[in-house]
């Protein structure tokens, strides 16, 4: 693509004229429009309407509701019941003793891009989160061991590699929980991202948005929600078209061959049977197609010396045509019920995820010796049950279980050269490529059951202790009992100390373990490094965590946390070969430790935060999937500790937002965020050390200006108008995420250069 500054100037001019309109409207004093405000133990829920004199507040349980005369009694009751059940659902999965980073609705909107920002970019604003290529994130030195929950229900893992199938637009708010997790959290335990989805009560009405700018970026979206009677509906859909789908393989402004088209949908329907019973259904679709960026300047290897490419075939590495398509569909059906001293949520869920890679038939043969058409899919279904029993004044007992049943299918068609001197070195190859087909399938199960007691022996001391039993029966059959204990002590006003220990059992992600035969490609240019392929085993950890948090002044909060993980069969992942499909393997021994410091200030129109983290992640002796590695790497790592390829020593993030004219009809919000990384790992070829070097540190700043005009068209058409200007990588800093070396790294990737985007959204 050619960079077109004229289009950006037009976008900027358009936005400037609308901002001027917004400032003119700001001169008018806003009228209070609060209709119903339900205050619960977890926050505030607000709606909008026309001004009126309030009646006396009505108490119901722990909620206080202020009903406006023109509101219908039924609408007020709907808000009351929603707040009551939302609070009960959150209490099913407490985070006692863990480290929790909350993203409120306002915090999500303050981040440049707002709902248009990818979810992984939002999570980078939490402490201890490092960015990687293909939209991956690493939390506290782990690879991809992050579980995602929708309204408290854990989703099975999928095959999404480029970013996430879940979008920021789905979330009303969310949290990221790390540390020594209580026993209800199992399987993937580096972090828990719990997304509270939007619904027709909290997000009534509709919104149409058009967003875009540089690099053919075009991002329309639509959402609509409403509640009627006992029913509540919400749906959102969007389409993303751009030329930044995957990280650039060069430092140039535009990546070669990087077009992507993505479709996303989320629908949410809820039926409130009574004030203690609710049934909900969430369904989502993600469909994405990507061009894979080319890596210019490569030289064909020895296997192509006698090969004559077909007439008209592209042979330059900067002009190849590789594609990858990813699909993820999921659905969650949940029943929530309050029965006296018991609260419960029972759910069933299913997820289908597939990935298909289409090679460049000639180019992949020339440069890789294998033009492999690959397809992989995983179908997961299961159930989750969580129960809270308020057994006594000082004891809250929780118990439940989870079961996932998964079916993994893999098929490949490899076009390769035959080796003419099998068993000899150096190898020589014939000129006529041929096809090798391989397929495999496997059905497996992951299960876990837990029980725990939250005990308050003293007014300011809470002890949460429990036990899990987890098992896996897939490519490996293993199980483990896992005790966990957390202590939370509040020794003084607005101060909290916590410490915890958790035993973890992490099954190998089913979708990244392939059952393909290694012998099928023996004696060809696509032969593996060896035929050794020990099975990937479950990771077993001892995890220790301690820290404190303190409110210094109203609105000003600080926190510190330190952690240490001692791992057996530590699971890591890497990309081996042209298809961007991650493959899992184990280090026999692993250690991860670090600390985090965070602070935030929220007062009136001003919001500030800053996070700083140090981490070290190392492993020794690769004990599975050995065929992916050179023998020299295996020999070195067998007796020496090495940095994991995603180990980043220093990580930091910060943000600031200020809203001008916040008491008027036309507030203007300016915000900026910063992400710093000391660099992921690369091979030290001079000394023969895998992952022996750290890449160059980098820091990027994103900027945003958002002009809102409340109720723009008055009574003729109720709804707010919002205009936004976002600049990603404001300083146009060129930085490298990967240099193409390192364990499980096959190509260089650079961070996004300066990108200017603008948009307009209209509520209705």
TrEMBL record:
| Limits of the TonB-dependent receptor-like beta-barrel domain | 287-730
Query: Where, per UniProt, does this protein localize?
Result: Cell outer membrane
Q: Which GO terms describe its biological process?
A: siderophore transmembrane transport
Q: Which Pfam families match?
A: TonB_dep_Rec_b-barrel
Q: Does the keyword Disulfide bond apply?
A: no
> GO cellular-component terms in the record?
cell outer membrane
Q: How does it sit in the membrane?
A: Multi-pass membrane protein
- Spell out the molecular function terms from Gene Ontology: siderophore uptake transmembrane transporter activity
Say which domain of life the source belongs to: Bacteria
| Keyword check for DNA-binding | no
Positions of the UniProt region annotated as Disordered: 299-318
UniProt keyword list: Cell outer membrane, Membrane, Receptor, Signal, TonB box, Transmembrane, Transmembrane beta strand, Transport
Report the InterPro entries cross-referenced here.
Beta-barrel_TonB, Beta-barrel_TonB_sf, TonB-dep_rcpt-like
Endpoints of the signal sequence:
1-26
Q: Which family does it belong to?
A: Belongs to the TonB-dependent receptor family.
PANTHER family referenced in this protein's UniProt entry, alphabetically: HEMOGLOBIN AND HEMOGLOBIN-HAPTOGLOBIN-BINDING PROTEIN 1-RELATED, TONB-DEPENDENT OUTER MEMBRANE RECEPTOR
Q: What is this protein called?
A: TonB-dependent receptor
